Structures
1.
Amino acid sequence: MIALNFLVAFNLGLVSTLHCWGMCGPIIAAYSLGLPDRRPSAAYVTLFNAGRVSSYIVAGLLCGLLGSGIADLIQAFHGQQILQGLAALILILIGLYIAGWLPQLSRIETTGMLLWKHLQPLTGRLLPIDSTAKAYASGLIWGWLPCGLVYSVLLWNLANADALTSALNMLAFGLGTLPGMITAGLTANTTLRWLKKTHLRRLMGVIVILAGLFSVWITLSAGDHHQHAHPRATQAPDHEHSHHHHP
C-alpha cells in the first residue's frame, strides 16, 4: 500500500498541473518579474519549487502525526480501518474534483486563509529575488498558499495516519507537480494547453477515482481477513483448556 500511495500521490501531482497553472501561474509570473534581470532563471525557478515541495513535506508530516494520534484515540473502534476507509473516500472526492464534477471541494481553501494572512506579507520582503536563499525561501512561503487540491491531498494523508508515509506521499505529490510548474516558471505561458481539454481532465479524474475504489477494496478485504482471523485466535484458549481436562 505504501508503494501504491506513493504512485497515486505522484500522479495526483501530475494531473494537478492545470489547477496549479491556474492558481500559481500568475504567482510564478510575478516571481519571475522579481528576478534581478526579470528573466526566468532555471536555478532560481528550481529552488523556488524545491522550497514549495519542502513545505508540502512538512505539512504532510504534521498531518500524518495528527492522523496517527487520532488513530490511537479510536483504536478500540478499529480506528486504523476507519481512517483507511476515510482516506479512500477522500481520494474518490479528489478524483471527482479533478474531473470537474465536484468544484465545491475548493471551499476547503478558506481553512488556510488565517495562516496565509500572516505569511503573505513575508513574500514582499524577499523581493527582489537576487539570491538562491531568497528563491528557496520564497518557495517555502508559497508552499502554504491555500489550495483546495493540496488541502485535499493533505486530508488524504491525515487519514493515512502515518507521519513518514504522509511526508513521502507529499514529496511524491510535489515531485509530480514539478514538470508543469518548472515549465510555467521558465516559459511563463500556457504551453500545456492540451490539459484544458475537458475529456482529458475527466480521464485523469476517473483514474484517481479508480485508485480510491481500489483502496476501498483493500480496506474491506483487510477487514474481512481480520474478522476471519479473530475466531481462530479465540479458539486457541478453548482448545488448551480442553486439553487440561482430557489428558
2.
Amino acid sequence: AGMARAETAAFAADLVLRTSPAAEPTPPTSPAGPTELVVVTKADLAPAGFKAPVGSVVTSAVNSQGIGELADAMMARLVPEVRDDPSLLNGPVPFTLRQVALIRNLAR
C-alpha cells in the first residue's frame, strides 16, 4: 500500500528527485520520467572511474559538489521561464494556491 501511495504522489508531483549513491550505484529499474531528475549522491565516496548516468546531477553534501547545479536543474524544471527572464525570481515567489489567489485579488 505504501508503494502505491508513493507512485501516486510521484505521478502528481511537479518534480521527483531520483537519488542513487555514487559509492553504491544501483542501476535504475526504469528510465527517468519527464518529471524526474536523477541525482547521484555521495560523490566524495565514488569509486575510481565512476561514471554518472547521462543527464544526472552529481552531488556531495560533504564538499558541496554539485549543490548549485542541483538547484539550477530544479529551477529549470520547475520554473522554465526563468531561463528567458532571470528577474522572475527577484524577490518573494508565491508557492501556495492561497498565496497565488491573494496576489491575483490584489492585482484586480
